[in-house]
Every structure is written in C-alpha cells, then in structure tokens.
C-alpha cells in the first residue's frame, strides 16, 4: 500500500472510491446469453489529454451500452506503473499499460527493481501501437540536439520516463545531459507553449490530443529516431519496433517521421471470474467496428495483434476467447 500511496502523490491520480469487480457474475445461460448479474469494474487509464483516457472511455461507452454483463467506470490515473499497482493492490479491476512496463512489473525488473514484483495482474489483450513521440521547438532538429536542453520526460515513475531514458541511451545520453522536467502530456504541451521547456517525450497513440492542440498555436518539430538508433534501441530492449508517424498528423509536420513504438495493453485483476473476462474480451472484439468509429486507434484492434508482443500470461477468460476465435 505504501507503493500505491507514493504513486498517487507522484501521479496526481483521481481515483474515486468505486466498486471493484470482486463479485462473481451469474453463469451464462445456455445459448451464450449475457450473464444476469452486471459486474461493475474500475478501469485505470492515464492523464485526461492522453490516448489511454480517451480510448478507455470509448471502450467503456461502447460496452456499457451492450448487454454483456460488465459496467466499466473509467478513471484518470498516473498511467502504466501506477495502473499496475492499482490492479495489483486490488484498487482497480482493469487498466491500460505499456507492454514493456507490465513485463518489468511482473518480473520485478527495471522500473520495479527497487520495489520488487507487482505481479497481481493478467493480460487481456494488446490494443494498439503506442508511439514514442519527441516533440520540440522548431529550432531543435534531432534528438542529439536535446543535450543541455530543458526536456519533460513524462510523469515521475511513468513508462514514458523509462522510454525517454532508453531512447536517450541509444543516442549516448543520460538524464544528466538534460534539464529534466517531470510533467504530464498536457502540462508538457503548456510548458513548451509558454517557453518553459524546449522539448518533451510523449508515449501515446498518434495523433495525440495534447500535441494536436499544441501544433495549432506553435510551430513544432517531431524528432526522428533513425534506423541506426532504432536498431540499437531494439537490440537492448526488444519491445520496440519502428513506426512512421504519417505526415499531416500534426499541423506543420508535413512529412512522415520515423520513430519507435510499443504496445498499449489491457490488463485485469486475476481475481475476476473467467466468465466475466471472457464476456469482456469477446465484447471488445465483436464491437471493434463501433470502437473504431469512435476512436481512430480502434482500427488497430485485431485478434492477431492482441495476442502478440506480451509476456505476461493471459487471464483464463481472455485465453478461452482467443482459443475459440483461433488466435491462440
């Protein structure tokens, strides 16, 4: 619980006291009808200007309107690391996290090396690519140029902060080479707009709301992670893949910009009933078109993508669905 309290303070989380899904739903009647009892769940996401919060809200809105036996309450949180502790400590039932950070938590490495394992969670599905975006003022043209600059690396203890460390490492730099600021996506955008920082790291689905809004008022650059440095990064941290941010995603950035990406992944409490998680997983993929209509990242939802690139075991309910669907 100490860990949770620390993360609440660091991430300025807004988790309200709501019911977690400890109760078991009634078994599904024959014929595949939805369970009679609705299980109320809390989903941890991220900051209100990030993709986790928006995408989690879409999933909740779509599924809460269906008779699938679940009712999801979305909460803004400090994102990946905080979300893992929330689920591990029983304060949330679901959460969206980076697939690299969930591996660290499950195995007690890297971001979790000091505190030890936080393995009280299971995988539901990989959802979409999380793009590591490095946004700067117009006069900065490469990641190497960040040396000596004022740079926001995300919330303290967040997955973004770890991505920033690793990307800088690929360029032969550490946090000692920059003036570190720990700000959320929205606060980073505001700080760059006001001239308080020179650049910021943002790991989220692209385009990201905070960057879209910034680009409407300020000239920005998206900094490239070129082939040489992307290969160096992937050799050290195999979660990373190259990812082109399409030109036109942000005002003033007309050409494609290559960077790297990881996966946003839905996790859940291992204490949720198999039938509950089965119904949840099935409902997400059977309503993919409706989710995609409400949020662009829903276009990336697919059975093949959902089951690859994750190292934490699937919840039995999710596993049951993916086996029935032929994905596992």
Description:
This protein is an alpha/beta fold and 328 residues long. Helix content is 34%, strand content 20%. Strands 1, 2, 3, 4, 5, 6, 7, 8, 9 and 10 form a ten-stranded mixed β-sheet that branches. It is globular, with a radius of gyration of 19 Å. The chain starts with a helix and ends with a helix.
Write the layout of secondary structure elements.
Elements: H1 2-11, E1 39-44, H2 51-64, E2 70-75, H3 80-88, E3 94-98, H4 99-107, E4 122-137, E5 150-152, H5 159-170, E6 179-181, H6 185-193, E7 199-204, H7 209-215, E8 220-222, H8 227-236, E9 241-245, E10 257-268, H9 274-286, H10 288-294, H11 303-306, H12 316-324
Parallel strand pairs: 1-2, 1-3, 5-6, 5-7
Antiparallel strand pairs: 3-10, 4-7, 4-8, 4-10, 9-10
Helix pairs in contact: 1-3, 5-8, 6-7, 9-12
Q: Name the helix and strand elements from N-terminus to C-terminus, one letter apiece.
A: HEHEHEHEEHEHEHEHEEHHHH
Which runs of at least 5 residues are low in confidence (pLDDT < 50)?
1-35
Mean pLDDT: 89
Beta-strand content bin: 15-25%
Described by the principal axes of the CA atoms, the overall outline is globular
Radius of gyration: 19 Å
Distance between the termini: 36 Å
Give a concise summary.
It is built from twelve helices and ten strands.
Features:
ten-stranded mixed β-sheet, 10 strands, 20% strand, 328 residues, alpha/beta, 12 helices, globular, disordered N terminus
